[in-house]
């Protein structure tokens, strides 16, 4: 169990998913986790379990070592500027989860030279299955391990360059929504061909999980596994071809690129 004290500033949907993942894994003593939000009502169930909650950001970071800032891009710099007098460069490690806000912008808003990281987890943190991309200009191995250890508690981590953080947001964080929409469509198709919604959901979700595990464990290209189930004149290739004729892959790629361009703007 890690002994660091953690402050999660702005516990919205992503922040709450991270907290739930930490609770379930018991990686940190719950009394070492402090979460902030303007309206504390949505965090009260965490407080009952032992997590500290407050609407005072400066109080939250006072005893913390890791500061996880889970605020929206439009207000993170303002909040960090307000917190700046309370930030101690010798003690604090700051991790921003805000899309499109660079390490340079964060450092300028704080006006202090401290270890700053950017990270992009996703809401699968709730069930300890997030993939978190991390970047930093900090080369201190001990601090790097502390940050990685935090996010490894809710899934897995990948170290990337900062210029890829927006792309990581699209396929890693937005990607959750893309996959869920695909799953929903498969369930709807299953209902149309005869299954009730509950049974279709069980079949589809396990199929998606199985497909992911094949790629993760076997480390094969998706087409390798696709070729195994597309027999000549079979129903699988017929379905795949119909999807492609209607722009399945193209629509997904265009959606990913559109999301990326939205961040760039």
Automatic annotation (TrEMBL):
- A GO BP entry: L-proline biosynthetic process
Listed pathway(s): Amino-acid biosynthesis; L-proline biosynthesis; L-proline from L-glutamate 5-semialdehyde: step 1/1
Pfam families associated with the record? F420_oxidored, P5CR_dimer
Read off the SUPFAM superfamilies from this record. 6-phosphogluconate dehydrogenase C-terminal domain-like (SSF48179), NAD(P)-binding Rossmann-fold domains (SSF51735)
Q: Where is the Pyrroline-5-carboxylate reductase dimerisation domain?
A: 162-264
Offer a single GO CC term for the protein: cytoplasm
What catalytic activity does the UniProt entry give for this protein? L-proline + NAD(+) = (S)-1-pyrroline-5-carboxylate + NADH + 2 H(+); L-proline + NADP(+) = (S)-1-pyrroline-5-carboxylate + NADPH + 2 H(+)
Superkingdom assignment:
Bacteria
**What residues does the Pyrroline-5-carboxylate reductase catalytic N-terminal domain cover?**
5-99
Q: Where in the cell is it found?
A: Cytoplasm
Which residues of the sequence carry a binding annotation for NADPH?
Answer: 57
Give binding positions for NADP(+): 9-14, 70-73
Q: What InterPro entries has UniProt attached to this entry? A: 6-PGluconate_DH-like_C_sf (IPR008927), NAD(P)-bd_dom_sf (IPR036291), P5C_Rdtase_cat_N (IPR028939), P5CR_dimer (IPR029036), Pyrroline-COOH_reductase (IPR000304)
* E.C. number: 1.5.1.2
Picking any one GO molecular function of the record gives: pyrroline-5-carboxylate reductase activity
This protein's UniProt keywords: Amino-acid biosynthesis, Cytoplasm, NADP, Oxidoreductase, Proline biosynthesis
Looking at the keywords, is Amino-acid biosynthesis present?
yes
Under NCBIfam families, the record lists: proC
What does the record give as the function of this protein?
Catalyzes the reduction of 1-pyrroline-5-carboxylate (PCA) to L-proline.
Q: Which family does it belong to?
A: Belongs to the pyrroline-5-carboxylate reductase family.
Q: What is this protein called?
A: Pyrroline-5-carboxylate reductase
Organism this protein belongs to? Halpernia humi
């Amino acid at each position: 169990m890690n002994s660091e004290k953690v402050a999660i500033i702005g516990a919205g949907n992503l922040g709450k998913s991270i907290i739930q993942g930490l609770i379930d894994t018991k990686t940190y003593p719950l009394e070492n986790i402090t979460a902030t939000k303007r309206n504390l009502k949505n965090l009260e169930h965490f407080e009952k379990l032992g997590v500290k909650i407050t609407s005072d950001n400066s109080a939250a970071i006072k005893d913390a070592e890791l500061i996880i800032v889970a605020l929206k891009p439009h207000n993170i710099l303002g909040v960090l500027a307000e917190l700046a007098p309370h930030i101690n460069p010798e003690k604090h490690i700051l991790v921003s989860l805000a899309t499109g806000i660079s390490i340079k912008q964060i450092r300028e808003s704080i006006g202090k030279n401290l270890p700053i990281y950017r990270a992009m987890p996703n809401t699968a943190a709730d069930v300890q299955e997030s993939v978190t991309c991390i970047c930093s200009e900090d080369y201190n191995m001990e601090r790097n391990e502390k940050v990685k250890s935090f996010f490894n508690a809710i899934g897995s981590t990948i170290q990337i360059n900062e210029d890829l953080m927006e792309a990581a947001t699209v396929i890693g964080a937005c990607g959750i929504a893309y996959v869920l929409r695909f799953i929903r469509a498969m369930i709807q198709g299953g209902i149309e061909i005869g299954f009730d919604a509950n049974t279709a959901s069980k079949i589809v979700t396990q199929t998606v999980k199985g497909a992911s595990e094949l790629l993760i464990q076997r480390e094969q290209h998706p087409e390798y596994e696709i070729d195994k189930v597309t027999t000549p004149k079979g129903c699988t290739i017929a379905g795949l071809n119909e999807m492609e004729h209607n722009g399945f892959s193209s629509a997904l790629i265009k959606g990913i690129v559109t999301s990326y361009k939205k961040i760039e703007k």
